[in-house]
Structure formats: structure tokens, C-alpha cells
Amino acid sequence: MGSILHFCQIVGEMFRVIGKPWTVPWTAETILQVTLLWIISFWFVGSWMIPLGAHIIGFSKESLTYRGQALFSLLTDVTEGLAGILILHRCLSRFRPLPSDWFRFSLRGNWLFDVFLGCLMFPLVNRLSQLNLDLLPVLPLTPVTLSSVEQSIVARDPVAMALYALVLVVCAPLWEEIVFRGFLLPSLTKYMPVWCSILVSSIGFSLAHFNVQRMLPLIFLGVVMGVTYARSRNLLPSILLHSLWNGFVFLDLMK
To answer: Which of 158, 160, 140 has its CA nearest to residue 148?
Structure first.
């Protein structure tokens, strides 16, 4: 009985290290509203608005040079990100002013050590990537095609590679961390423990990438970034960690 109690105390202390729940002024209805609107806007902007605008002007992404495709991707990513921020601003405007630990960016605090620990998890993310491929391999009949990013790397176009690096290392981490760690994770703590909110938001983060071959590593990566954010209450560390991972993947593609 004493050993069980001691174990429970250890587990409880681990959860306290992760952080306490946020003060959430909205209900599940707002959480669902923001999430659904973000998914719809992401799909609408990337699959309809930008391609339709390009068609009206008189070109398609496939007809562009490597640099043109990279600029097209940057424009699409920035538009998707701004649409998501606008949705957050509109849906949460009636709850202002928000508590001080919401959407906080700060250079203060001892969060660099957490970022360093997160970077040490990168090899495990790679191992999970291989495990995921072993469990859910790409079908043999599926045609193997190079993405526009990989094509520009093969062509060694420095401008295109720089534009893609900007998308992967700056834009994507900023938008994704604001939505998944900045909004979804703390919102869920109103209805579940912090550790569970980290896991659920990480699953959502993984599903948003629409790639079953990368689900396990993305969930784990989301958990690492979620713990970092929950401990610091600061979006800057999780954005930095996200950027470092994307940069690591980009450099690996360049080999």
C-alpha cells in the first residue's frame, strides 16, 4: 500500500512539473467553432482560393519555374496562416482581455534548457518515422513522385530553396504553434488534465498534416512541443523547437 501511494505521489509530481491548467474563459462550443473554421479556411485557401486566383490571372503552379512554385507555396502558406489568426481574433474577441498567460511571446524565463532537451528527442522522432513506415508502408503501386521542395533541392536552385526554407522554418511553425499549442492545448485543459490535453492536441496536430505515414512521429513531436509550452507558458520555445525540427528535416533532404 505504501509503495502504491509513493508511486502515485511521483506521478502527481511529474504532472505538476508539466504545468497547471489554464484559465479558459470560453466553452467547448468556441473550441469546436475555432477548430472547424480553421480546418475549413485551411482547405479553402490552399485548395480553392489561391489556385482559383492563379487560374484567373492565367497560370497554374505546375507551369511555374522552381522559384515560381516556391513563391506560390510561400504565398499560400502566409495566406493560410493569416486566415487562421483572423479566425482566432474574431472568435475570441468577445473574451478580451485574455488572461496574461494566453498567446504569450517572451524572451524571459529558463526555457532554453527545455528546448535543448526537446532537440535531444529528434533521433527518437526519426526512429518513430521508420516504425510508422514499417507499420503502414507506402503501397507498392503508389507512384513515387518528388515534391516541389525536393525537386528544387535536386535542381540546386538557391532562391527556391531559400523560399521553401522560409515556409518550413519560419511560417509553418508560427501558424501551427499558435493554433495547436497556443489555442487548442490550453483550451482543452478546461475539460481534461494537462497531460491529456497535450496528447489530444498532438493527435490533432498530426491529423492536420494528412499523412498516415507520419502520424507517430508527429504525435510524439507534438507531445514534446506541448510539454515545452505547458512548462513555459510561452509560445516562443515551442515555435523555436518546431523551427529547429523543420530545419533538421530540410537539411536532411538536401543530403
So the answer is: 160
